[in-house]
Design a protein that fits this description.
Elements: E1 10-18, E2 22-24, E3 30-38, E4 46-57, E5 64-70, E6 103-105, E7 120-128, E8 138-146, E9 152-154, E10 172-179
Antiparallel strand pairs: 1-10, 2-9, 3-8, 4-7, 4-9, 4-10, 5-6, 5-8
Length: about 180
């Protein structure tokens, strides 16, 4: 029996988890290994995106801004799909202005006792209606940028100490639900 595209119903759910560890240090968005591919059943569908990323920091002075990209959008890193908070401007992570984002994490700048053993989680969700709709496979991905290009690490803390059990390695995920329009 064919799937029916009833408005508001979940058509399909796909999820990808990753244990890949990576470093990101840029004031501009960089795509991460936290992504998932979906082949829509209907060209008019919306996508409900949920994500959770495990992260560590190189030092206590890093703030992180996150968003999502769609590989079918022209220049996806310059055109993230979720709206930024623009109170204070729509700026990247360069010094001299506030950094805008959809989700993220502020720094521990006044708490210099927070070290690079710290592990946090950033949760996000967004209901996305693509401007260019079709039934081609698309890749939705989490992107990150940091204050002043400081070090942000996915699926690990800021350490590299194989003999210490506090040096953890974790998994992050991105889930996409296709929603009937």
């Amino acid at each position: 029996m064919p799937v029916q595209s009833s408005s508001g119903n979940v058509i399909q759910i796909v999820q990808r988890t990753t244990e890949d560890t990576a470093n990101y240090s840029s004031v501009n968005y960089q795509n991460t290994d936290v992504y998932c591919d979906i082949t829509p059943k209907f060209s008019s569908s919306k996508f409900y995106i949920q994500s959770m990323v495990q992260y560590g920091m190189g030092d206590h002075d890093v703030a992180v801004s996150c968003n999502y990209t769609d590989d079918q959008v022209s220049n996806p890193l310059d055109n993230p799909i979720a709206p930024h908070s623009v109170t204070g401007g729509n700026n990247n992570g360069s010094a001299g202005s506030r950094m805008a984002g959809y989700m993220g994490f502020g720094s521990f700048a006044s708490a210099n006792t927070v070290d690079n053993w710290y592990v946090g989680q950033i949760f996000g969700s967004y209901l996305y209606t693509p401007g260019y709709q079709n039934t081609n496979t698309r890749r939705l991905r989490m992107c990150v940028r940091t204050s002043e290009g400081r070090l942000f690490r996915i699926n690990m803390n800021g350490q590299n100490n194989t003999t210490n059990p506090m040096d953890v390695r974790l998994r992050s995920h991105l889930t996409i639900m296709e929603i009937g329009a």
